[in-house]
Amino acid sequence: MEKLTQVKGIGAAMESRLRAGGVHSLLDLIHTYPVAYETHRIGDLDAAITGFPISLCGSIVRSAAVAYLRRRLTKTTFDLKVAGRILKVTVFNREYLRTVLKEGAECVVTGRLESDGIRFTASDVQLRKHYREGILPVYRFPQIGDAVFAKWVLSALPAVQHSLREEIPDFLRIKHGLPDLPAFLRIVHQPQTESDLATVTKRIKYEELLRFGVKIACLKRINDRTVTPPKTYDIQTVRRFISALPFELTPDQKNATNEIFMDLKQPRQMMRLLQGDVGSGKTIVAAIAVLAVVTAKEQAALMAPTEVLARQHHLALTQLLSPFGVRTAYLSSGVKGKEREEVILGLKSGTIDLVIGTHSLIQEPIQFHRLGFAVIDEQHRFGVKQRKILREKGLTPDMLFMSATPIPRTLAIAMFGDLDISSIKTMPVGRKPIRTEVCDFSQMDRIVRLIHDQIQLGHQAYVIVPLVEKSVKTEAADIGASVREFRSLLPTEVKVEGLHGRMTPEEKYRILASFAAGDISVLVSTTVVEVGVNVPNATLMVVLDCERFGLSQLHQLRGRVGRGADQATCFFVTDDLLLGSDRFAILERTTDGFLISEEDLRQRGPGEVFGEEQTGIPRFRMANPVVDRELLETALADAKAVMTSSDPVCRRMIHEAFSEIEETNID
Length: 667
Ligand code: ADP
Ligand code: MG
Description:
- By secondary structure, the protein is of the alpha/beta class.
- Among the domains are: about 1-40 and about 135-160, DNA polymerase, domain 1; about 55-130, CATH 2.40.50.140; about 235-265 and about 280-405, P-loop containing nucleotide triphosphate hydrolases (Rossmann fold); about 435-590, 3-Layer(aba) Sandwich (Rossmann fold), CATH 3.40.50.300.
- It is built from 22 helices and 20 strands.
- The protein has a seven-stranded parallel beta sheet with strand order 10-11-9-12-13-8-14, with helices on both faces.
- The structure holds adenosine-5'-diphosphate and magnesium ion.
- Magnesium ion binds near residues 282, 283, 377 and 532.
């Protein structure tokens, strides 16, 4: 009785699309809530306020004309008569509408009226007969239109009424004045009024955040059980190390160091997130902690997301720590044969104090003599996976996670409730803020001239190209095409080379080494340079089609320049500016990574910003921990009540959270 295909309109093909999106039953279907709602109303031209979005209806008095501006940019213009006035409408990248936007056609344009009261820049154009007024649920289900999806859901509802299962414990639902499940389902897929909307969005968000809260509480419970012996480190050696540094630690670095040392002394496993912008000096703090652990006769492991980064860490840490007696080694899947055997033996016998490698290091069948400390670089938040692997190996080292996507403290505490947090907010003195400009592709000539200028001054530049598709071929092809383009735009003596993730580690390393040595002037690259690459002589960064990246990622990319004494410049190039997007303006205003990530979290949510897989932070369907911060805090407090309640719904939530944590995949 619960087959998807019993719904009119769902055949075998549609069923497999639904299944691919995780919908396997009628219950799944009705529990697929909208991710947003759009309120469609046709506005009144006289009430239009310059710059604010509005939908207007009229008839076309001059058919659409299309101009091809440049690569992937077309401009369609037509005249629309609205309430007796003629508007000059412009819409970008809708050239395919040309055939229907003919004189006499009735259509609805959504967009902004310019200050002259005549020009109208549309973000959407629809024929009147296709325009539906009212509150429309937006599902964004892959490959299925919203209207079709809504229809299916409504016709599936009666069939499942009897098998509904409440998801929010009654005592909490009543406390917050939320409707019960049957009442909720009646309006969630077909809201009529603004107050319906407020009710259903609150229930959806609350349920999501409560689940999240319960999961965090469960993680905390696992963590609280872990007891580790306190470390008796040699504070004199640590002091000598710090005073031998060529600079003084910033106050934030000192605080973070103190917090970590307190953890080392506790008989409880350290679970600490050290967050700060790229270049804020996290690595030094980690190095100090490693030294302390080694003086306590225990071993340390440092894991980085890429081989390039791991090698850099290995070089830097060996240089820093070996004068203080720390014996380091590098291990990755690329290290083979006798060299590998030696490292493995050294770790087992304890003749190696610090091993550095990629994140896969802990998945290797390695035995440690006495692993006391694990540092995980650029692995946001929980490192749920790593913890699980270590637990299963019977290892409970103190753990330090380093993140260069720092978020404001209150938000961090709310979101990463089971981690302790140290933040480095101020940069070491003497850094020049990077000059940043967001522009469209019409500025490319000027940018190429500026690249050339910098090269003539002996500097270097990065050009970052997004992957259009995550396919093996495209990546190389895109980079190849861009390399050729920049070679043709710049004088022949300028050396331009490409870098992308599909290259072998050796190739990547060779290209990066020759860029670092100054032999390559322009490095055209995918985001493989995002984290950790350090070339102080590079002063210019250009990111093409930056709309394909999140703000935090762009900020990280920008952090690749401005590492030396010279003024650095960064260009973010996007044609979205022409469509009226101001998403990127914050990058021009500030270089404070805390503010930028907060805005990024507001725009995209934590699942997108941090990556759901590696962090365990869900892609919330509707809730947004930044926008809904208050509700999140309420839900986190309620989650504590759930943990101690005997209510069957509570027990089920806890059970589900634990099995979700256990299921966290291991590649
Ligand atoms: P992060 O790991 O946060 O990206 P690093 O620890 O790699 O930053 O530090 C970036 C650079 O700043 C390094 O060259 C480091 O030696 C230097 N540095 C770190 N702390 C200070 C400080 N307090 N004063 C001056 N320079 C510092
Ligand atoms: Mg770092």
